[in-house]
Amino acid sequence: MGNNYIFSLTPTFTQGLVLGQLSILVLLALVLKYLFFIPPESETETIPFHPLSKSNPSWHQDVKEDNKDSIPEQESAHWFNILARQVVEVYRAKLQNNLTGYEGIEVARRKIEDHANNLRPRGFLDHITVHSVDLGMSAPKLSNARVVNDNDGDSAPTTIEFDMSYTDTISVSLSTSYLFNYPMSSFARLPVSLTISLSLFESKVTLVPPSPASAAPVLTISLPQDFTLNLKTTSLMGSRAMLRDVPKLHELIEYQVRKVLALRGTWKVILPGIGSLATVQQEIEKEQAASKEQG
Question: Is the pLDDT at 117 greater than 90, yes or no?
């Protein structure tokens, strides 16, 4: 009789196991009763659950506001690249009188030849003959659009910059003669044959919106003078003893192209219905006169 008892102060392994299982069951019952179950007589208020979805306008607004506060939004220039390609294609088509193939290239060649002869210094260069032209197939590509100066609360317009890169197969082959007018007019001629092609043109593009304070508001697009221009030039000089690919001639041609781009690297677009060409020309002359006085 002394050893026939269920519990003792020193329980066995079986007794401990039974106590552990009972305590777990009691704890589970208490958790279910007071945390998940409710008495049937009590009144409760059910809170509806509305998950956030993309169709909820308030969700869009909150996400947009959070994005604006956390990460600055970067503008893509892909849309402008598509527009620029279409504009370049229009110029190519008009230069060829909307013709294709050899006929279109021949029309473009004659137009370029006539334009070159109209611009040539007649006292130094003989008639220019353009043998072939390649109008290219690509267009300038813009990237990395950014706001340079954001003038909040200021009347000055905001300046926007792009990075532009242009690689194409544009080339022109021509021949002419350099005229020596000493000791008499057309004393001698030096035949020159050239082929000029574009390798790379890289530059920043600055876009300045029109200013409300201006008498003739214009949209200004400009290229800085520190652009990158790589031209490939092959040349032949002379009639019998020919000089091939003279470095000084290459430097002279690249210098002249850079000079033209620097002088004509600013375009002003007149806003329709606000300004006129004469008014804008007057404003440009005033700006040039002011810059000369400062210089």
Answer: yes
